[in-house]
From TrEMBL:
GO molecular function: protein C-terminal S-isoprenylcysteine carboxyl O-methyltransferase activity
Listed InterPro entries: ICMT_MeTrfase
Source organism of this protein record: Bradyrhizobium neotropicale
Membrane-protein topology: Multi-pass membrane protein
Subcellular localization: Membrane
Spans through the membrane: 20-42, 82-106, 140-167
Cited Pfam families: ICMT
Lineage: Bacteria, Pseudomonadati, Pseudomonadota, Alphaproteobacteria, Hyphomicrobiales
Coiled-coil regions listed in the entry: none
Keywords: Membrane, Methyltransferase, Transferase, Transmembrane, Transmembrane helix
GO biological process: methylation
GO cellular component labels: membrane
Gene3D superfamilies: 1.20.120.1630
Annotated protein name in UniProt: Protein-S-isoprenylcysteine methyltransferase
Superkingdom of origin: Bacteria
């Protein structure tokens, strides 16, 4: 009995990811994901990190949001979008998504070896407050939240929008936990002063 890879492909790549023009957004996110995972090997040695059990406070909403965000959920529920963007509307949204993921890359490259996918204290860790980190304290989360919310709105289904919101809330929670952790590890005088000077996620807002 031979395995039908076409069926697997149709499940893995379906729904709003194959319907133009929202397919464009899926291609942008796939390109970002591939590059992000590929660069994950470039990071410094971890000295200390938040326990896995504690990290569930942000991992769970991100996981649930990710499931809701996928086109598979839309297909299973046979959802119809609340609205349909024109090509021009999706192109504008695509620019927002590109700007968001470009901001994430600026933040990651600027952070260098101190970057980690989890909340960690790297060897020789110090406060980075230049570049995008002089605009917001969490530029990677800022870019991802902007891109996710823009994509959810463009897709227009209830699950995609709810998924984008849950992912955003999870990233906000992760940012809060990271700040408590780094304030203890790097010192309130150093990291606390930085938090009082630079907005957390939304540029130009008052810090804290």
């Amino acid at each position: 009995m031979s395995f039908d890879f076409s069926k697997l492909l149709s499940v893995a790549w379906g729904g709003w990811t194959t319907t133009w023009p929202t397919q464009l957004l899926a291609l942008i996110w796939l390109a970002w994901l591939a590059s992000w995972v590929g660069a994950s090997f470039w990071q410094g040695r971890t000295q200390k990190q938040v326990l896995t059990l504690e990290s569930g406070r942000y991992r769970i909403p991100i996981l649930v949001g990710g499931i809701l965000f996928t086109p598979w959920t839309t297909e299973i529920l046979n959802e119809k979008p609340l609205w349909v963007f024109s090509n021009a509307g999706v192109y504008i949204t695509a620019l927002v998504v590109l700007a968001g993921i470009s901001f994430t890359w600026w933040g990651r490259l600027h952070l260098g070896k101190f970057w980690s996918n989890t909340i960690t204290h790297k060897e020789d860790h110090r406060v980075i407050d230049t570049g995008p980190y002089g605009i917001v304290r969490h530029p990677i989360y800022t870019g991802l939240i902007a891109g996710m919310l823009a994509t959810g709105i463009a897709v227009g289904t209830v699950t995609a929008i709810l998924g984008a919101i849950l992912i955003s809330l999870g990233m906000w929670q992760k940012g809060r936990m990271e700040e408590v952790f780094l304030s203890k590890e790097l010192g309130e005088d150093a990291y606390g002063a930085y938090c009082r000077r630079v907005p957390m996620i939304i540029p130009f807002l008052s810090p804290r």
